[in-house]
Write a structure and sequence with these properties.
Blueprint (H helix, E strand, L loop, with lengths): L6 E6 L6 H9 L8 E6 L9 H12 L15 E7 L4 E6 L7 H16 L3 H15 L8 H11 L1 H36 L1 H9 L6 H29 L8 H32 L4 H23 L8 H25 L5 H30 L3 H20 L5 H5 L8 H19 L21 E6 L1
Parallel strand pairs: 1-2, 2-3
Antiparallel strand pairs: 3-4, 4-5
Helix pairs in contact: 1-4, 3-4, 6-8, 6-9, 7-9, 8-9, 9-10, 10-11, 11-12, 12-13, 12-15, 13-15
Length: 459
């Protein structure tokens, strides 16, 4: 049986998950029975072991539908995956009809830990839910015990063959996914190629942004020819060819290049529409301001963090939030009424992004200085925050500003949240390497008589 989640609920209190990627991936995961999936992140404290009770408290306060009718167990048909990036705990909880053994719960948790240790919170969560889907309601003949026994009977040679077959199958799976994504992007670009060329021809070259995007278009055609070659090469591979890692890399390169081109042709279209004020310019403008709007929406939770209270940088950010929110609305009104030119509007938008970036840099320094105790810890956090900032800013390349300027111009609020949690988690891990990593299945004194199936462990 293959049943995608009946519902997906994300409660990201720690602010470390990239939900577009997470939700898209979870919708593609098949359980053996229809299952509701809840993903929870907890913003705990270093050295604590209360993720089980925190998840239960969240359910009682905000999601009573996660509990059974008598509120003594988890609801049927439910699987909860939880992670605390600060206390470095991962937990799994489930209804009685989805219950698995403690060893299988540990296997689900173990599947995430290498990724979580690298602060890959979204990827680790996806891995955990995938593993859970594999183990929940698993038939006896697919159990690890049965397979291990069969393997022993079959001999070590069978294990070796099975391992190699598994690697080849995994390579083919990855290649098929890359090929599917690459074909989607390449097809979109190819179908719109004439339109993209027409858009480029009418972009005003005297505009500073127009000239910068036209430079991108010149590279666009060269890269499109490269994508065509990779398309032909990828489709020429046989099933056997796609079992090898080297050929998977070729298909992956094809998918990545096709995605970049698909993004860039949208930027070329928006540039032409916006600079010339053609029909539909309102949608193009909305796409340009969307990243800054998202940042402003995410600022209040960042400022409400307990460790941020009282810092001068927090006060400055709060003031800037109100200021930029008002200015962004006024900028849109000015542009709509033609009181400001497209170039001037984009210049103003760039300046607003730069103001927020500078304020977030100062806030980052203040938060790091407050939490860390040594130069080494400070370097660890700075590295974590810099890394996630680069990854997040890359996603802004679908805008005119993101396309023509370096990623270092932007500091997305989401990237600040993820980077801070990741850096703090890594520092906390260094401080408590001697702590136990054993499994915990209790809900503490606050749990009362609650006996729902679930456990947690450290990473």
């Amino acid at each position: 049986m293959a049943a995608p989640p009946t519902d997906i609920v994300v409660a990201d209190a720690a602010g470390v998950l990239y939900q577009p990627q997470l939700l898209a991936a979870l919708k593609e995961i098949d359980f053996r029975e229809p299952t509701k999936v809840a993903v929870v992140t907890i913003e705990g404290e270093n050295g604590t072991d209360q993720i089980n009770s925190d998840v239960l408290e969240l359910a009682r306060a905000q999601h009573p539908e996660w509990l059974s009718a008598d509120e003594q167990k988890w609801a049927d048909g439910l699987f909860i995956f939880a992670v605390d990036p600060i206390a470095r705990k991962v937990g799994t909880y489930m209804g009685e009809d989805r219950k698995v053994s403690l060893s299988k719960q540990e296997a689900i948790q173990e599947s995430t830990k290498d990724l979580f240790r690298e602060a890959q919170w979204t990827e680790g969560t996806i891995a955990g839910v995938k593993k859970a889907a594999k183990l929940i309601n698993q038939p006896w003949y697919l159990s690890a015990g049965f397979i291990i026994t069969s393997s022993i009977v079959g001999g070590l040679a069978v294990i070796g063959i099975g391992t190699r077959a598994g690697i080849r199958a995994n390579n083919r799976r990855k290649a098929a996914e890359h090929l599917k994504n690459g074909d989607a992007g390449y097809s979109s670009v190819s179908l719109a190629l004439d339109v993209t060329e027409l858009n480029a021809k009418t972009i005003p070259g005297e505009s500073s942004y127009g000239s910068l995007v036209l430079e991108k278009y010149r590279l666009f055609m060269t890269e499109y020819l490269q994508a065509r070659e990779l398309n032909e090469q990828s489709h020429a591979f046989s099933k056997k060819d796609l079992s090898t890692a080297g050929n998977v890399k070729v298909v992956k390169k094809y998918a990545e290049l096709a995605a970049q081109l698909d993004t860039l042709d949208d930027v070329i279209g928006d540039t032409n529409t916006l600079l010339n004020r053609y029909a539909g310019w309102e949608g193009a403008w909305d796409r340009q301001v969307a990243p800054l709007r998202a940042d402003l929406d995410q600022l209040p939770p960042l400022l409400e963090k307990s460790e941020a209270k009282g810092l001068p940088s927090t006060v400055a950010l709060a003031s800037l939030h109100a200021h930029l929110t008002q200015r962004l609305e006024q900028l849109g009104a000015d542009f709509q009424s033609s009181r400001i030119s497209p170039d001037a509007a984009l210049d103003t938008l760039r300046g607003m992004n730069e103001e927020l970036t500078e304020a977030l840099k100062q806030h980052s320094t203040a938060m790091i200085d407050q939490f860390t105790k040594t130069k080494s810890e400070k370097a660890t956090m700075e590295k974590a925050m810099g890394s996630t900032r680069q990854q997040d800013a890359y996603g802004r390349q679908g805008t005119i500003l993101g396309s023509v300027y370096s990623w270092s111009m932007f500091y997305p609020v989401h990237s600040f949240n993820v980077g801070y949690a990741s850096g703090r988690s890594e520092v906390s891990s260094d401080r408590s390497q001697a702590s136990s990593s054993g499994s915990s299945s209790g809900y503490g004194s606050s749990g009362g008589s609650f006996s729902g199936s679930g456990s947690s462990s450290s990473f």
